[in-house]
Amino acid sequence: KGPRLRAHRLVRASGRAAAGAAQPAGTMAPFARNDKTVLEIALPALVGGVLALAFTTYTFFSLKGEPTGKDVGRPLVDKYGAMIKEGAMAFLKEEYKWLSVFVVLLGGILCALFSVEDQHTKLDGVLTTFAFFLGAILSASAGWLGMMVATDGNTRTTAACAGKEVKDAQGKVTGGTGSLNDGLRVAFKAGSVMGFVVVGLGLVGCAGCFCVLAIHNGLGKTESLQILAGFGFGASSIALFARVAGGIYTKAADVGADLVGKVEAGIDEDDPHNPAVIADNVGDNVGDVAGMGADLFESYVGSIIAAATLAKRDNEIALPFWLSACGVVAAMIGTMAVSTNEKGEGWNSNLGALMWALEKGTMLAGVLFLGLAAACCHLLGGMWGAYICVLIGLACGMVIGKITEYFTSFDFAPVKSIKARGATGPATVTIQGLGVGMISCVPTIVVLVCAILGCAAIKGEYGVAIAAVGMLATLGITLATDAYGPVADNAGGLAEMDPAIPDEVRCITDSLDALGNTTAATGKGFAIGSAVLTSLSLLAAFKEQAQLDVSLLAVTDPYVLSGMLFGAMLPYMFAALTMISVGKAAAEIIMEVRDQFHNRPDLVAQDGKTTLKDCIIMASNGEPIPPHMDVIPDSNKCVAISTKSSVREMIAPGAYAILAPLFVGFLVGPRCLVGMLAGGIGSGAMVAIMMSNAGGAWDNAKKYCEKDGTKGLSKVKNADGSLAHPMKKTWYDACVVGDTVGDPFKDTSGPALNILIKLMSMVSLTIAPLLKTYDKHWEFYYWGFPPLGLFVVLTAALVYTGILTWEDPIGKMLDEGEKKVESAPSVVSNKEVELVA
Hints:
The structure is a single chain. The chain is built from 25 helices and two strands. 76% of the residues lie in helices and 1% in strands. It is globular.
């Protein structure tokens, strides 16, 4: 009897009153009726998720079949690639070890909260915790799998660009069989695995969890969707820590490698003699693959949950699930259109033609999705208002991408204006970059506002939510183009690390890297836009679930206004914590790199005489280094420093983001919490856009120096050893400093703000059923004391341990450096000991 009863519930799970259910049988199309079963709602999404995972598996094995460095006579590429993969996996293991403890503790708190008072059944606490754990595990799995494949793809991309050596009759190497299209194809394969594993796990997890909850005794569709918010909460929690820790890791290593390697020592960006280069390349993966994947996994499932929660009838519940399944099919077909006929001329490549190589795939996916979405809306009873909202959402994402490209690509005036300011030093480069970032908020916000107003006029709050679903429906290929970037960046680094790889191959990898820089910037713009729409939808869903009277949510209400002010402050606090964390971690890397450059007599070549410092001098002068005189730095030390620092520094911003909505909601009440969420979304969107676009513009201003020859001229020397173009050196160094300032802007603080506003909204939606009983402010204030007390205790502990401090964490290291100067001035100069401010 038990299995039959459960099957019956799965087929006819109770739910909302169906608007069209009373019509006589036969008067409506089979799918247009509004008394849908749970299977009819979720089955398309389950099938789409399985298809995405099957496509992921096929792409993964196809990638594994591509030649590696050893297969094309470049074993050194495989060696450095293995070091990058080892460092990336070591970071993830350390991060997930700490996150597992956090997830278990938070799951226990959720279980206790929802078990105190039964909302639907006596197992509400257990079911909410189950959904939370499932969301966290799948989000972490998506990051792990994406990282594993990306670190396999980088060596294969370099090998595809190099190809097998071609020799003439005398045995002289005249070129290779590799091409730009081969490299693009392999790098995009690696990115596709990340894109489709996020979509596949998201759909299977979200739809599967909904089915499991709906067959439980006492739970219908409405109640199941309330508990499903726990799934989004789990995904959001992992996403925040992955993004913050990954961002701190990558930029600490990047800043350290750039300042000591490029600015002080004058060696190339990915010179293998720089101890921080491996950590820098590891950081590209942990920040832009695992971090971005977790970010968009959260947006993807969050948009589906928000739209289904705001639905008033079964067809509206089904639509986001069906649309997501259509997006999988469209994205799979779109990936087949990615290719290029460009030759690969480094930074002189036609960036517009390279972008078309990826854009034609995303545009094909978008057109196919609109056709499939029209079929879905027709089958569900002519939901053409919702279809227009989907169209608006998809168009909004594309327009925001183009706006971001305009402000961050060196083909356009904003980036060129920043590069021009390099003539007067780093201060004017910094000022101009901040201005570009701020002005970039204007068109982006105008597009978002128009999209929100249009969707609200057509379908109300549900229209905004379904627009977010439309924007994210083809996430498989959108995320693939974004995850492609760090793979191409790593491939370029590996090509530069191997001195045997000719300049022609480096021109190909530089072309891929130039394209990757643009796709990374546009991907961040897309992530911000989707985060805003998803957060607004989650806020509306929270208002519905908490059963708040709209008339009591006036902006002039002091409680709502106080919440808005507090919420608007949180993104600034969050950005400050992550920026300061990057500065502290980077300082540790800088000191370690300087120490290896000057104070490590144990780092010597095979000849027993040549030191790492000697190799740095030869590399900075452009002299070839014979193999018997080459020295390999201790890269593992920098990887360990970055890992330890990033995991330590992620605690404060991550914990504060979760605790803030808990103590505000339980202490003051749900209306103050609505104000806090609204203030956080408004402030967070502005700061995220400004920081991401300013950072991207600074980055490409430095790249433009490479494109127009400024970098090359800065290294030319006269016969007496003096610089032939000292002004070009000053110009290029100023842009490098601007890029260094922009690194934490675009890769740490800016992207993490997307998750902050979504996480606070998802936490609020999860606890909304517990806040329904609040009829007035401060009514059950004592429930707010535990999270507030935890907030205070955690802050005290972080201050006591020195994680939250204004003191210089490496002051002792600087003192030791000064003592070394006094004892051995010939080894370490005063200039080398000074910490770059």
